[in-house]
Structure formats: C-alpha cells, structure tokens
Predict the 3D structure of the following.
Amino acid sequence: MSISTENPMLTTPFRIKGVRKETHDTFTLELESQNGKFSFEPGQFNMLYVYGIGEVPISISSDPTKPDGRLTHTAREVGVVTKAMKQMRTGDTLGVRGPFGTRWPLEEAVGRDVVIVTGGIGLAPLRPALYQLIAKRNQYRKVVLLYGARTPDEILYQKELQKWGGEFDLEVHVTVDRATGAWRGNVGVVTTLISRALFDPSNAIAMVCGPEIMMRYTIQELGKRGISNERIYVSMERNMKCAIGFCGHCQFGPMFVCQDGPVFQFNQIAPFFGKQEV
Amino acid sequence: MSKQLSLKMPKARTERAEESKFILEASHLGQLLSALIGKGYRAIGPTVRDGAIVYDELHSLRDLPVGYTDEQAPGCYRLEKGGGRAFFNYTVGPQSWKKFLHPPSLRLWKADREDHRFQVVQEIEQTTKFAFLGVRSCELQAILIQDKVFMGGQFVDPVYQACRDNIFVVAVNCTKPGGTCFCQSMGTGPKATVGFDLALTEVLEAKAHYFVLEVGSKKGAEVLAEIPYRQADKKRIQTANRILARSAKRMGRAMDQTNLKELLYKNYEHPRWKEVASRCLSCANCTMACPTCFCTTVEDLTDLTGQHAERWRKWDSCFAMDFSYIYGGSVRRSVKSRYRQWMTHKLATWVDQFGMSGCVGCGRCITWCPVGIDITEEVRAIRGQTSKPKSPKSYKEKN
C-alpha cells in the first residue's frame, strides 16, 4: 500500500527496477518499493507521478499472488506524462499513490466459467486477474481469453499469451484487425470470437476491458450468448486527478470511477453506458 | 454568567426554546467581534469591495456593509448604499465560505531532486482559526454538504478538515431574501437550524435595533458569556419570528423538488439541453460562485533548474473542455453535455453520491451567470412546464 492516510495526495517514490518495451508505443515499468512490499487486488490502479511533469492513473499489471513486491504497470505513450514515462530508465524514480479502485470479480467467479474479452492495452489490467486464475486454476471451470489487437505487432505479452494457451488449460484466442506479414491467425474485431468460444453462458462470468466502443459491442455479443448484465464486469476509464473522490473529474453518472470503479458490474452502469458524452 | 444555567433546566419545550433565545443589542455587536478576535480567531465577514459584498477579514464593525442593500436578478447584481443602520440587509455575494475551507489554489507538496531520486516534502501549514460572521442558512447547509464530500467518505481531505474543525460560526438569519434566492423551496433557509455556534436575527425598528440570538454549541455559549446580553422576551422573539416567516414568503424563486432526481435521470436526452447550450457560454462562473461545487485539478510545476518541483491543487470546473479529457479527446465535447453534467450532478447524481442535493438555493449561479441562465427555470423546462420566466410576484402568490 502506498496511500498516506494523513495526506492521500502525497506520492511515494519507487525505484524503477526494469523497463521493457512491449510494442512500438507500449512499455512495462517494473517498480520496487522501499520496503519491498506492495499488495493490491487485480483490477486496481495506481497514480503514477513523473517528477515535475504530472500524474496519471495506470492499471497494475503484475502478479498479485506473489508477495515479492514486484509491481509492474504497462502503459501506452499517449500524452505528456506517459511519453516522459517511456523515456525512464532503470534506477530512475517514479512517484506512486495507490492502489485505488475496485477489483475484478474473482471470488464471484469461483465454480464458474470465466470469459475475458480485451482489446489493445486493455489486456494489461486483466493480467493480474489471469495470474490469479492460473494460480487457483482448479477453483474455476473453463477459462477463455479473447484478445484483439490492431496488428500482429501490437499484440501485448506475446510470450505469455502463448504460454497461457499452451500450459495452463486456458482457451486463448487472439485476433487482429489488420493482418500483416506472416500472421496466420484470426482477422477481425474481437467480438467475432465470442460466438465460437466454448463456455457455458448460464454459468459464466465475463470480464471486459478495452475501448468503450469495443466494450459496447462485446456486451451485446455476450448478451446474445446469454450472459446477463449482472455477470458482465467492465473496467472504465475517465480523467482522474486525485483518485480519492475529491477532484470530480472521473464522474460517470453517479459513479466516481476512481472509487466505485474502475471495475463495474455492468448492470450498475448500464443506464449511462453508451449514452453520448456522459 | 448565571443566565447560562437556565439553558440546562428542564422546562416545557416551547418555554425552553424561548429561554434559549437572548437579546444582543446592536450596539454590542462590536463586542461580539472583539470577543472572537480576543479568542484568537481571525474574523471573516461581509465587506464591500468592487461594488459587491465579499467575505474578508473584519477588524471592526466599520468593515461591515452597514446600510447596504443588494438587488439580484438573473445575470444582474447591484449593491446600493441606501443608508440606514442595518448590518445585514443584503443577501449573499459572489463569494462563499468555500474560499476559506476549500482554497481556490493550494500547494499540496514540494519535491526536491537529487540525481535519479526525489524526496517529497509535505506541506505543513499553520491552520488558521477562522470565525465566520454572517453565515447565511443556505451557506451553512453548503458547508455541511462539503463536509460530506471531504470528510464523509473513505478518504478525508486533511486541509479541509484542519480548517473545518477550528471554525466558529456566527449565522445570520435572512430577513430580506434576494431576487434569485430559493432556499425556502430547498429546505435550507432562511433560518439557520443547525451547524452554528451562534445565530443572529437582526431586528431594526424605529426606536430599537437588536439581535435575537440563539446558542448552537458550547463554544457559542462560551463566547456569549463574554459579551453583554439579556434573556429574550416573548415580544421580541415574536417580532423576529414574524420577520423570518415573512422572509420565507418573499423568495425571488422556487425549485420544485418533487422526484427531481428521477426526472433528471430520465431526461439525459431532453431537447432543453440543446436549447440551454445555445445560451450557455461555458464560462464556469456558476461553478466558481457555487458554495458546494468542489471539483479541482492539479498542476505539477518545476523551477528553472528542475531540481525543485511542486504540486498545486486548483478549483476546476466541469464546464472546461479539458475537464473530461482522456486519450483520444474530451468525453464531454459539447456545451450541451457539460451543462447537463453540471445540473444533473448538482440536483440528481449528487443525491446518490452524498445522500443530499448539491443545491442549497442560494441563487449565486443565477445572479452570476453572464447570460442569466436560471437553474430553477431549467428544471421547470425539463418538467415540461412553461419556459417563460415567471415574475417573483407569482412565486409570492404561489407560496
């Protein structure tokens, strides 16, 4: 934990232990806390501060089952802060506040089929959930991961995807919007994978993370397969300045995405989801 | 003083209510101010600056806007010195007590860099003990709402709490509501009922000028003990009650609360949002003037050497385009969606977030809107009622 109860806006310096380039615009930072500990729940995020530049919310992408304090975040270079973050090197210091927010429903999913549908960097906030599913694999029935990227070069965590599909009794399907080079896999948006994935809709829980438009069509497809809104969980993204419910920026209808989310049971937000400019 | 003891004696309820009211002669108001300053409070109250009532430090009663009255209407504020001896014969100005409890600009922390590392230094600020003199009932309710926002959840804002825990509140009941006031319909005024240490109702008659005073806390009783006062008699209490009852009927506006939350939840797609957006300048005045709006942004800065960084928190507004910016663009690009966000938050989603409305009926957003958008009128329009503004008179008749 790295939230001061006295002043929850105070950031804590963490040392960067490793930097890894994932794709042309994504990277993973491995961080190390001073006391070597950091516990969190899958789905939660941290506010990461680049000295003098700014602070942004980034999902935690490391393994929550390992108590070694290994803390990783995978981010995409999209703005001033993430651009500066991408240039950071091992030994540099990054400010951390967190963890914040709600978790993926891994307890609720015990004894059920689990369907994970993600797009692009949306895989990062689901990686901790996958680690936990794998660590307690016998508690869950079928585990299906459907992942869509724009191009084969933009597929995140490629080695792990292969490993998960091969070694851990996970059904992994990857698709790309545009095939390039030697790609021989699926082509098309991730929602096209839903109709043919093998799971029991009457006893499945779905976890969805990606662009809102992708999530909207995913929810439709999951609905067609028979998964009701109560058993679909989505992770939302909004502007955040504080992550503690004070700044007001992340409001989505009555929800504060920082505290009531980012992971929502879909029926909670269904009345607002898909409405323009809420 | 021995009179204080009577507060605790068991009496019939009405009698006790009367006994807990006191008379403070207007000529002794200065002693109240001195007593507060003497107790180490920094006294803040209404004073005149740039043609408006603002809240600032009071050194003596001369700083109060004696003899001033204000006129308020949509997009219109006029302060006049009509003469007379009244201390509080005006309503709220553009500022609220929010500027003290939730400062517009605040440094949260500093950091210094050494090689690849940086050290964060927490800001340790001396907490000022504020005595707020002249807090209106709607404003007290606004403070209670912000208490819920900053102290009622999982996290507590330490800056707000430190300031809040040390304030002394002298409420002033509104005897002359303004043209944009609607606290009566919001159930937030004109008489202060909770949250004060002392409350005053000013009575100015041909041959008498006094305050009917109520004690709201132990702190209040302690201050009262230091100034001259006497037990209130029935006649004076009735006079004050009559003035406040009349005040409640003279609200310039009203907002119908019936199913308001449900109404707004149902009407995200109402054509009125587009209509109001054609008038709204998205200037954020309403959010700055609002005593409950709490949104902030942060700014990260460095000095020229890059060895010293700071983080500042500043008031922000949901009317700003970049307020909802995420990668790819702002979520609320249109003025229509931003006005809808503000009003729906204030009157509907706020209720689900904090268990109460975010509006106290102070009317500031109406008065200080440069184009005179009237939130009570917008509610009526969404209800499908007339969109033609009613005159204050028709409200008077209705109420």
